[in-house]
Structures are given as structure tokens and as C-alpha cells.
């Protein structure tokens, strides 16, 4: 079963992902962007470039996703593992959807009518939809504060448009997403996530 953790920068995904490793020692834990491939390295170069081309950046992230799927996710699912990924396709839908929304304002004829839908469509033939996605819900100001504004995405204004996109995704697929309040203590957030995960494992 493929389970993904999503939310704004600083919402606590990595803290939860690390906490889950003690609870589910047999599971495969992975992340996007990948941190052990040249595809992931290319993505991190793009993140560090405040002037990166937004469309090129989308396809760098998507290339990293394709390699992540074929090298890590699919083999683990074929073994029957529980796979838990810290970020996955929804991050692209929400983040690159927001970046491309801003880009479209000045793109003239190249403007995308609905950037989020465009990014979803790019993934449709190549990706695997998670069975459960846990959304750690936190307001953009607290998220930016917790994240410490270390990269170009971690600004409250940008995160507000990312949050709007996440809300659209939750509305589209209410059965796949479970919302967990990320304002709680780290321990309470982890318990909320474990409860959601146990529920999904039971109905499997
Ligand atoms: N529930 C919580 N309450 C308060 N602080 C938290 C909570 N969870 C995590 N933090 C703190 O917030 C910061 C960001 O947490 P974390 O790295 O887990 O977030 P993230 O969602 O993975 O961020 P990013 O997407 O930027 O990697 C860390 O300093 C972490 O200790
Ligand atoms: C997978 C993915 C990530 N991002 C952004 C979100 C973060 O600001 C950075 C790095 O992620 P991390 O979890 O903080 O290490 O990349 C993105 O814009 N699109 C994506 O698909």
C-alpha cells in the first residue's frame, strides 16, 4: 500500500515520517525530491536557483518522480511492502500549480488556463495514485515560520497559494485524503497520523 505525507513546508511531515519509522519498522520509507540520485540533485539545484524556469522546474521534479517510481516505489509495492513517502505527486500539483499560476500571469499566449490541472494531466499516464494521503494542515504563516524561510518556496505569500491548491485537491478526492491538524504537539500529530494509517490498513 502506498501512503503519502503532504503539506506546506514546515508542517511537520519529516517529523511524522521519522516517528513512523519506529512504529512500522518493516515499511519502506522514501521521499521526494529524492536525496540519493542525480535526478534529485538536479531538483535541488533548481530549488536553489531563484531564477529557475518554472516549466523546466516542473519537469525536473517530474523526472525525479519517474525515476523514484521505477527504482523505489514500484519494486517495494511488488514486494508487498507498506510504502510511506514524505511528499509525492500532490506536492507537484500544489507547488508547481502555484508557481505556474504566477508564471501564467505574464506568459501571454503560453499561459496555462488551469496550471494545477495541467500538472495533474502530466502525471496521469505515468504515476501511481496513493491509497492514502495524509495532509498536515497548518496555516502558511506558521508554516513559513517553522520552516525558517531557507528556500524560495518557504514564504507565507507563496505558501498561501500552495495551500489553496491543496484544498482543491482535498475537495476533489475526499476519500484519498485525511486531514490532520498540524497545530497540535508533535506527539498528538503522530498519533493522528497513526490512527488514519491503521484505519486504512484495516480496510485493505
Ligand atoms: N507539531 C509540531 N509543533 C511544533 N513544531 C513542530 C511540529 N512538528 C514539527 N515541528 C518543527 O517544525 C520544523 C519543521 O518540521 P519538519 O521538518 O518536520 O517539517 P516539514 O513539513 O518536513 O518541512 P519541509 O517540507 O520544509 O521539509 C522543525 O523544527 C520541527 O522540529
Ligand atoms: C516534491 C516537491 C517538493 N517541492 C518543494 C517543497 C519544498 O520547498 C522543496 C523541498 O522539499 P522538502 O520536503 O522541504 O525537502 O521542494 C515542490 O515544489 N514540488 C515537489 O514536487
TrEMBL record:
Pfam short name (any one): Thymidylate_kin
Listed GO MF terms: ATP binding; dTMP kinase activity
UniProt binding sites for ATP: 7-14
Main enzyme class: transferase
Taxonomy, superkingdom: Archaea
Catalytic reaction(s) noted: dTMP + ATP = dTDP + ADP
Entry-linked CDD domains: TMPK
Annotated GO CC locations: cytoplasm
Keywords, comma-separated and alphabetical: ATP-binding, Kinase, Nucleotide biosynthesis, Nucleotide-binding, Transferase
GO biological process: dTDP biosynthetic process; dTTP biosynthetic process; dUDP biosynthetic process
ATP-binding recorded as keyword: yes
Thymidylate kinase-like domain location: 5-190
Enzyme Commission code: 2.7.4.9
HAMAP family the UniProt entry points to: Thymidylate_kinase (MF_00165)
PANTHER family associated with the record: THYMIDYLATE KINASE, UMP-CMP KINASE 2, MITOCHONDRIAL
NCBIfam families: DTMP_kinase
Protein family according to the UniProt entry: Belongs to the thymidylate kinase family.
Protein's name in the database: Probable thymidylate kinase
Gene: tmk
